[in-house]
Design a protein that fits this description.
Strand content: 35-45%
Number of strands: 66
Shape: elongated
Distance between the termini: 23 Å
Structural class: mainly beta
Number of helices: 5
Oligomer: single chain
Strand order of the largest sheet: 2-3-4-6
């Protein structure tokens, strides 16, 4: 069912806008397809529909054609079509990605980025009549534009999410051709997306302004760059200029802005979307073919697994996972399962709307979470921060350490419900408890990218650096003997080491037999001789590697880690606590992740195929641990999970905590994106599907239409629910149709036709959600009329009592 509606504010999640020669129209990516619209706003039109994902659309300089990249036949090739729409013509044929960059000045060929012929992101051109592509620039690039005398190219390796960086890795704009290139200015700041305007004969690009906002700058040869835009509410990304050099379009806060040259005036482009609602609104699948993460209880008999964002628990029996129960399935993304020390309860995180909540699964029996395969009870722990990331149980079984929104280390007591900040250091990445629960070890970047290992009292105090190494020292682990700490270390030239620090001089000075005797007598209280601690560090082994994560047995006697060979294959290696018995365990390019080791020497990990595998330190492959569980979920829930996975990857690469407002905004949009569902695609494909699915602004919803002279039908969308109401000017209202599991009822309605004012009050609940409240409801108007509208939301529990009254945006329809 296709639904079109009017929107009173700009759409979001439009990607890669590119203006036409006339500066009157724009093409862009939306819902994985290529769309066209007027730059004055209004209804948009789909030019390239289909099941593939299309990106990088670009008008030809003469305005007749549009070229773009599509993955409809594989990794991604360049296609071309008439600007008015129609059948696409394939121009390139390559197993890898050919990304469309720009057109030649004569509109007879296109330039694209490719890694064919042994190159890495080189520039090639191909004629619009077809043929063999020709290399244009055998240099690694990210973006280019044509100049009157050559090319301007963007080079560098800084990630797009990194801000305020100035250094040798920064993105820079180079000009020239062939092997002759030069820098037009000496700035060390990131410079991206080169463009050329023949209208003013200047090179334009994006660079941070003094306040840290990505702005458009321009410059002429031999002169200093001039800042041309001064937007303060976000960053300019993915700009494109038309061939006349008078119009630039760019992404800004999820929408399109247009910049006119030489006036340098900016305005927002407001569009009217199309929307597909598929039926049925639920999707069933067999989960378990790929595992996201897992944890094994200390007894070795229980395992928790996460697949497609849902969490399950089972028993380890005969090298397989049996008695599986569903712990959580829903719109929130579950991850990071962690069994309590006694194995009686399971904590895990639920990621949604930019927040990470800490959940706890309780058993129906005091003996096991898995008795009678019953669905466990779930409790959301009241942590002090709305982000409770990377939970780790204390050995005392009463406390859980986690990282808050700023990456600071906090401890939550599950008994007293008290939450304490351990120290004020932000951006912590790894943390580990001492066996007596009195200390916490953590690693944190201290100089740009370099990490150091610190130890701090678990009740709070001043952290102490125990590594002081010139390169990365990370992932501290506290063995159960309480006499040392293990951590990983890497160098920039590719060495990966496992190190350990001894707390006492007695252990450091002792021979192998003395140390063995000490490890056989774990301490009940961990005491650290701080003087000379860093000098009591030894390297157990060094292999070729990078920032890779190891696993260690609870007693710290066996360490398993990823290592690379000379054929660029990553496999599983192990070493013992003495630095002896270094061995390669797998040989088939396993690329192991989430490594767990028990005291018996069994190693569990997730392989490149996504399956959980078990090997022994003697090199024997015991096999894969298979598990499967049928799950039915709403498509809206699936898309919401994709969003929570996708946004941190797109905006930050790793961390979501920096973008809470974006999560709030985009999640509201995503609730309507029920029309796209993939199975088995890569993460990137799923991310593209989410962000190209795009929908409405959070203050808009499903449209309505006239139904007779005196009544109107309006539709509201609350997540998966589609409600249509028939309203009359006399104030009567009734539900025409309701689809979905949610319950909503109209408490009151008043319409004042003379002022075109509508006020609606809703009561609603979401019985299948971990929370009984929802913070957003969409609303929209009807064709041919304008009125001010006000909506009040009154979420309530199952007993009908009002929970709270969230703020709902006002609008005009």
């Amino acid at each position: 069912m296709l639904i079109i509606g009017l929107i009173s504010v700009g759409m979001s999640d439009i990607r890669e806008p590119s203006p036409s020669l006339s500066g009157e129209t724009v093409v862009f990516c939306f819902r994985g397809d290529i769309w066209e619209a007027s730059l004055s706003g209004g209804i948009m039109r789909c030019l390239v529909p289909g099941s593939g994902t299309e990106t990088s659309p670009c008008y030809s300089p003469d305005g007749r054609l549009i070229a773009f990249t599509s993955n409809r036949t594989g990794g991604g090739d360049v296609y071309m079509m008439n600007a008015s729409g129609g059948t696409s013509t394939r121009l390139t044929y390559h197993a890898g990605l050919d990304r469309m960059l720009c057109w030649s000045a004569t509109s007879d060929s296109v330039y694209f980025q490719s890694s064919r012929e042994g190159g890495n992101s080189w520039v090639y051109s191909v004629s619009i009549t077809g043929g063999t592509p020709s290399p244009v620039a055998r240099v690694e690039i990210e973006n280019i534009c044509l100049l009157p005398g050559g090319l301007a190219i963007e080079r560098g390796c800084t990630r797009g999410w990194r801000k305020h960086y100035s250094g040798s890795a920064s993105r820079k704009i180079w000009t020239g051709s062939g092997t002759d290139w030069e820098l037009p200015d000496a700035s060390e700041l990131d410079s991206r997306w080169p463009m050329y305007s023949p209208r003013i004969d200047e090179l334009l690009f994006v660079r941070e302004d003094p306040d840290g906002h990505a702005a458009i700058w321009s410059m002429q040869p031999g002169q200093e760059p001039l800042q041309r835009t001064f937007l303060t509410e976000g960053d300019i990304t993915f700009p494109a200029i038309n061939s006349s050099g008078e119009t630039i379009t760019f992404e800004f806060n999820g929408g399109i802005r247009c910049l006119k040259i030489p006036e340098w005036s900016i305005y927002e482009v407001l569009l009217i979307p199309g929307m597909d609602y598929p039926f049925p609104l639920e999707h069933g699948e067999l989960v378990g073919y790929s595992t996201d993460c897992f944890d094994i209880a200390s007894s070795g008999t229980q395992i928790a697994v996460v697949g497609t964002g849902d969490i399950f628990a089972g028993t380890l029996e005969d090298d397989d996972i049996e008695n599986i129960v569903q712990v959580y399935s829903g719109a929130w993304r579950a991850r990071d399962p962690a069994w309590s020390p006694d194995g009686s309860t399971l904590v895990f995180t639920l990621e949604h709307d930019g927040s990470i909540q800490l959940a706890q699964g309780f058993p129906d029996s005091i003996d096991s979470l898995l008795v009678d395969s019953a669905f466990p009870e779930i409790d959301i722990l009241p942590t002090a921060s709305d982000v409770a990331d990377k939970p780790v149980w204390a050995p005392d079984g009463e406390r859980i350490s986690y990282l808050d929104r700023d990456g600071r280390l906090r401890v939550f007591n599950v008994v007293t419900r008290l939450d304490n900040r351990v120290c004020d250091i932000p951006d912590i990445i790894h943390h580990s408890w001492s066996p007596d629960s009195r200390w916490l070890a953590f690693s944190v970047p201290v100089l740009a990218h370099r990490e150091e290992v610190y130890v701090v009292p678990s009740d709070g105090g001043e952290p102490r650096n125990i590594s002081r190494h010139p390169n990365d020292d990370f992932q501290p682990f506290w063995p159960s003997d309480g006499r040392r700490i293990l951590y990983a270390s890497r160098t920039d030239d590719g060495d990966y080491s496992i190190k350990q620090v001894w707390f006492s001089r007695e252990a450091w000075d002792g021979d192998s037999d003395t140390r063995e005797g000490l490890l056989d007598r774990p301490v009940s209280r961990v005491d650290i001789e701080w003087e000379g601690l860093q000098r009591r560090t030894e390297t157990l082994c060094t292999v070729e590697g990078y920032y890779d994560f190891y696993g260690a047995s609870p007693d710290g006697r066996i360490i398993a880690f990823p290592g690379w060979d000379d054929r660029d294959r990553m496999d599983l290696w192990s070493v013992d606590w003495k630095g002896e018995s270094l061995q390669r365990i797998t040989f088939s390019g396993e690329f192991p992740e989430k490594i767990l080791v028990n005291d018996e020497g069994d190693i569990y990990y997730i392989s490149i195929s996504g399956s959980i595998r078990r090997v022994s330190t003697d090199g024997g492959m015991i096999g894969s641990l298979g598990w499967h569980m049928p799950v039915w979920r709403s498509i809206a829930e699936i898309q919401a999970q994709k969003f929570d996975v996708g946004l941190p990857e797109i905006y930050t690469g790793v961390f979501l905590r920096d973008f809470p407002s974006l999560f709030t905004h985009h999640t509201a949009c995503l609730t309507n994106n029920v029309g796209f569902l993939t199975d088995g695609n890569t993460l990137i494909t799923e991310l593209v599907s989410v962000f190209k699915c795009g929908c409405k602004n959070p203050s808009t919803g499903v449209p309505g239409e006239y139904s007779g002279r005196d009544s109107k039908i309006l539709s509201w969308d609350i997540g998966e629910i589609l409600l249509e109401f028939r309203m009359s000017h006399e104030g009567r209202i009734h539900i025409v149709r309701r689809i979905g599991p949610f319950h909503a009822s109209v408490q009151s309605l008043r319409i004042l036709p003379e002022y075109h004012y509508i006020n609606i009050r809703f009561l609603y609940r979401v019985p299948r959600s971990p929370s009984d409240e929802i913070e957003w409801i969409a609303f929209e108007g009807f064709a041919g009329s304008h009125a001010d509208i006000e909506i009040e939301m009154l979420p309530h529990g199952n007993d009908g009592t009002v929970i709270n009254k969230p703020s709902i945006p006002q609008g005009r329809i």
